[in-house]
Every structure is written in structure tokens, then in C-alpha cells.
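Incident log, support desk, overnight shift.

02:14 A customer reports that sequence design results differ from what the structure should imply. Their input is reproduced verbatim below. On-call engineer (initials T.W.) acknowledged and began investigating.
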């Protein structure tokens, strides 16, 4: 099978991570684990975008040098990824030497081949915000909003990347292969932006205005524009992450909808084309989290801290909630009550209880050993068919990026397990020696569905899955699927269960009050 090169957007290192960052990294981590389970070779790359004006300004505000500042911020990101079990193979910070070298090599190559040329940039510049303004920011009466203070017309010598040269090529490519972008309606957005002639892309800034960036190798007075620098992280981190152009392999890039046009949908494929490299395999564009239908923003106090949520509900509950709640590609509204309800219902009550009930009955009736159920009766046959059918649908939906629906299918298998126990009432069977085979089948089937589900759901809730597998008497490690997957587990009989403990213990506020 092909090897999968999977990347996240690299977050701006100008503030602590928020819910949007956490969702994207959890999502990509889940895709990486799922592909590994399917037997694919995977390289999962993530990182931080550490140059540019925003970072320079935030560092100045904090009274630190930009490098000190990003070093501090990076610990928050790395700490959160550890807590959330987001485990990339490589984590690239754009201030690393391997990246600087690669960016400079690319600049030299494109400059030498005539794809980067010197030119004049003319525009309106806000002295207070220290940035060029676009026409979009202008008020209807032609003036500029107060927040920009004094605005002057400025001319600057800069370098430009000849984007226009690649416009027709890109348009044709996306017309022929709209599935390069998921969901496909996003490909239309890019094609729409390609209707008008593309201006060449200004890829440098004078050092006098912005010092915090990678210097141009052919002009010491200029630094590289942050997007040109950031996009190239995908090449630096490809292969073994040594920053070699020849290591690039077409990636699946997971990004949010705000950075599709123009950065990933236009600049990036044109840069790859100019470098003579094949275009990416896919852009996987997710939507935005909102809260009470509003943008998450510090100024409105509408922020959601993923670290706090993971501490309160557990990392796996957080991972499960964001992936179950958001239809990949669309927006979703964050609601803490709904997170708590999913934890209590689907995770604790449905998944956790199935293990707890069946596991303790095996303790009680079978001395903690999984009984054998060699000749399934009709109830078992029907149950097994339901579970295997749900697993196949889960797999199909996961491959089509319908994670929220895929989880729904997997939970049908869990629910079938609970219903089977209710219907067969093992506590009654245990009283009747004539019903031994039926009791064995019930208990063994419950263990089997749990084993199948834990192995698959590891990509979403890794710590729980591994704890669950250990309780089932296994090692807790999940390898790739057996050849004939999905197949009913064959080697369960006689296995001694581990200690049965609740996977999702009651939260303090859920515990009954003692008066
Ligand atoms: N540094 C650039 C990306 C460079 S990639 C070569 C950047 N950084 S960011 O910190 O602003 O955003 C990082 C990722 O988080 C982006 O994919 C962005 O879409 C995503 N999100 C930011 N806010 C979000 C939500 N409210 N909801 C979901 N994802 C969001 O852009």
C-alpha cells in the first residue's frame, strides 16, 4: 500500500493553543493512527509557524526577543499535544536551521530560474499596525478605520514570485481533478479565485520594517514573507525531515477553511510546480468551531481552552467529542454540556458499562477466564453479523472522511453488545445449568465485540482503547489489522481478564451528593 504523508497546518506561535488548533491536530492524529491500523506506512508532520509580524509584535509586547518568546510558546503547544496524545513523527519549528537552509535553497533556485524577480510594491501602510492594508479594509467612504491610525501611501522595493505564470496550469488541474480538495465544494472556491488574473506574490519584506524572518540569500536587506516560509515546512519535514527538496512526496494537508484561498489552494501548488515537484495528494479542509454560533475570539471572551477541557473530562473524551460532533469540512458549535453528555452517555454508559458488566460477570461466573463459544447459536450468529456489518461501514466512512458518522456506526456495535446482554440476561442463565452454553456464548460475544471495537477506536481514544484491551487480558497495543479483517476473534477462550475498572469514572459533579 502507498505510504501516507500527512501534515497539519503549522500554528502561529504568537499565543497559546486554542480549540481550533487542538481539533485539527487531534483530527490529523486520528487519520494517522487509522491509516497505520490499515497497514499503511505513515509520516505525520506537525509544527509551529514562528516568523513574521504577528510573532514579532507579540514578543515585543511581552518584552522578550522573538526567539525567547517562541521558545516559551512552543512549550504550551508541545505540552498540549502530549496531554492529548497527538503524536506526530516530526514536529517542525520554522526557526530551525534545517528549515532556514531549505527555504534559502528554494529562494536561490527560483531566483536563478527567473521565477522570483525584483519589483516595486505600492500600497497603503498603517504606521500604527505596521502593515499594508488592502482595499477590503477601506470603509465605504474611502477612509480607513480608526484602529489603523495614520495611513500613508508607500512604495517599497521587493521580490515577487511569478504566480501568474502558473495560473492556467492550476486552473486546468483543478478542473480536471476537483477531488484534490475535500470537500469538493471547496475546489470551486479556489477555481472562483482563479477567475481573475493573479497578481504576482510579494515574497519579501525589507528588514527595516520586519526583522523576524529568514533572510533572502540574494539580498541581505530583505527577509522572506511568512507564508512563503511557512508553506515550505511541508518540504523540510518530508521524508526523513532533513530539509531536502528531493524528499518531498505528495502530502495530504489538513487545514482550516480560512487558509485555503489563497495560501494552500493557490500559492502552494504554484510553488510546487515552479520547483518541479508533484502537487499534493489532497487538501483536507475542515470547518471552524464557533461558540453560541459566534467566532472564538479573545476580545469577546469566547475562548475555549482545550487544556482545561482535557483536564476536566480527560483527553479521550475531548478527542471523542470533537470528532463525533463536527462533520469534517463543516462548521460546528462547541457546547461543554454536550461534551459532558457524550462522555457520560456514549463513553461511560455505553462503552464503559459493556466492559464493566460483562467483565465482572466473567469474574463471577467463570473465574475471570473468557469462556469458549465454538458453535454459535442463532442469536450469536445474528449478533456477530450486526457487529461485523457495523465495522465494515465504520471503515468505509472513515476512508471517506466521514468520521462523525463512522463513530456512529462503531457505536452501533457497542449498543448491539449491550442489547444482547439485556436480551439474554446472563444473570438468569447463570442459575440454570442447562443454559451453560448460552451463558458462555453471551459472555464470549461481549468480550469479542469489545476487542474489535477497542482495536478500531484506538485512533480516536488511544488511552482508553489500550486500557480496555489490557482489561480484556491483552497487551494494550494495537497493531495493524489481520489480513481477513473484520473477522470474529478466534483466540479468546481461556484468556484471563485483567482487573476490571471503570474506563470513564464519574466526574466529581456526577457523584451522588452525601449530605
Ligand atoms: N500559521 C498559519 C498556517 C500555516 S500552514 C503552512 C495559520 N496559523 S493559525 O494558528 O492561525 O491556524 C492554524 C490552524 O488552525 C489553521 O488550519 C486554522 O484554520 C485552524 N483554526 C484556527 N481557528 C479555528 C477554529 N475556530 N476552528 C477550527 N480551526 C481553526 O493559519
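02:41 Re-run completed on a clean worker. Output:
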Amino acid at each position: 500500500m502507498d505510504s501516507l504523508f500527512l501534515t497539519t497546518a503549522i500554528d502561529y506561535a504568537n499565543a497559546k493553543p486554542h480549540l481550533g488548533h487542538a481539533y485539527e491536530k487531534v483530527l490529523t492524529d486520528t487519520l494517522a493512527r487509522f491509516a497505520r491500523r490499515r497497514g499503511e506506512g505513515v509520516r505525520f508532520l506537525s509544527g509551529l509557524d514562528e516568523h513574521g509580524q504577528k510573532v514579532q509584535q507579540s514578543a515585543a509586547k511581552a518584552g522578550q526577543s522573538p526567539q525567547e518568546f517562541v521558545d516559551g510558546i512552543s512549550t504550551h503547544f508541545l505540552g498540549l499535544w502530549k496531554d492529548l496524545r497527538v503524536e506526530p513523527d516530526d514536529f517542525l519549528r520554522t526557526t530551525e536551521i534545517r528549515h532556514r537552509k531549505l527555504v534559502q535553497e528554494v529562494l536561490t533556485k527560483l531566483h536563478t530560474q527567473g521565477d522570483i524577480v525584483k519589483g516595486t510594491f505600492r500600497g497603503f501602510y498603517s504606521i500604527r499596525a505596521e502593515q499594508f492594508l488592502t482595499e477590503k479594509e477601506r470603509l465605504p467612504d474611502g477612509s480607513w478605520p480608526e484602529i489603523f491610525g495614520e495611513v500613508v501611501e508607500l512604495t517599497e522595493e521587493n521580490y515577487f514570485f511569478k504566480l501568474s505564470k502558473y495560473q492556467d496550469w492550476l486552473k486546468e488541474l483543478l478542473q480536471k481533478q476537483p477531488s484534490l480538495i475535500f470537500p469538493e465544494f471547496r475546489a470551486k472556491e479556489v477555481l472562483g479565485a482563479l477567475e481573475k488574473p493573479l497578481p504576482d506574490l510579494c515574497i519579501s519584506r525589507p528588514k527595516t520594517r520586519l526583522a523576524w524572518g529568514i533572510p533572502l540569500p540574494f539580498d541581505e536587506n530583505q527577509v522572506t514573507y511568512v507564508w512563503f516560509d511557512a508553506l515550505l515546512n511541508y518540504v523540510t519535514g518530508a521524508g526523513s525531515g532533513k530539509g531536502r527538496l528531493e524528499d518531498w512526496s505528495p502530502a495530504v494537508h489538513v487545514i482550516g477553511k480560512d487558509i485555503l484561498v489563497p495560501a494552500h489552494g493557490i500559492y502552494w501548488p504554484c510553488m510546487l510546480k515552479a520547483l518541479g515537484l508533484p502537487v499534493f495528494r489532497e487538501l483536507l479542509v475542515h470547518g471552524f468551531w464557533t461558540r453560541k454560533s459566534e467566532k472564538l475570539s479573545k476580545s469577546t471572551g469566547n475562548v475555549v481552552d482545550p487544556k482545561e477541557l482535557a483536564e476536566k473530562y480527560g483527553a479521550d473524551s475531548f478527542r471523542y467529542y470533537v470528532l463525533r460532533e463536527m462533520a469534517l469540512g463543516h462548521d460546528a458549535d462547541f457546547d461543554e454540556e454536550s461534551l459532558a453528555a457524550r462522555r457520560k452517555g456514549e463513553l461511560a454508559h455505553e462503552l464503559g458499562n459493556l466492559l464493566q458488566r460483562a467483565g465482572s460477570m466473567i469474574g463471577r461466573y467463570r473465574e475471570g477466564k473468557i469462556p469458549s463459544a465454538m458453535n454459535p447459536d442463532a442469536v450469536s450468529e445474528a449478533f456477530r453479523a450486526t457487529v461485523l456489518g457495523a465495522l465494515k461501514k465504520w471503515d468505509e466512512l472513515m476512508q471517506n472522511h466521514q468520521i462523525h458518522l463512522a463513530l456512529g456506526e462503531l457505536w452501533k456495535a457497542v449498543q448491539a453488545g449491550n442489547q444482547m446482554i439485556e436480551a439474554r440476561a446472563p444473570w438468569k442463565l447463570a442459575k440454570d445449568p442447562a443454559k451453560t452454553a448460552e451463558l458462555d456464548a453471551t459472555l464470549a460475544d461481549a468480550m469479542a465485540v469489545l476487542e474489535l471495537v477497542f482495536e478500531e477506536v484506538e485512533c480516536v481514544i488511544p488511552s482508553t482503547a489500550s486500557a480496555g484491551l489490557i482489561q480484556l487480558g491483552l497487551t494494550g497495543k494495537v497493531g495493524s489489522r489481520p489480513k481477513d479483517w473484520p473477522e470474529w476473534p478466534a483466540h479468546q477462550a481461556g484468556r484471563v481478564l485483567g482487573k476490571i475498572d471503570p474506563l470513564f469514572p464519574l466526574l466529581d459533579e456526577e457523584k451522588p451528593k452525601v449530605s
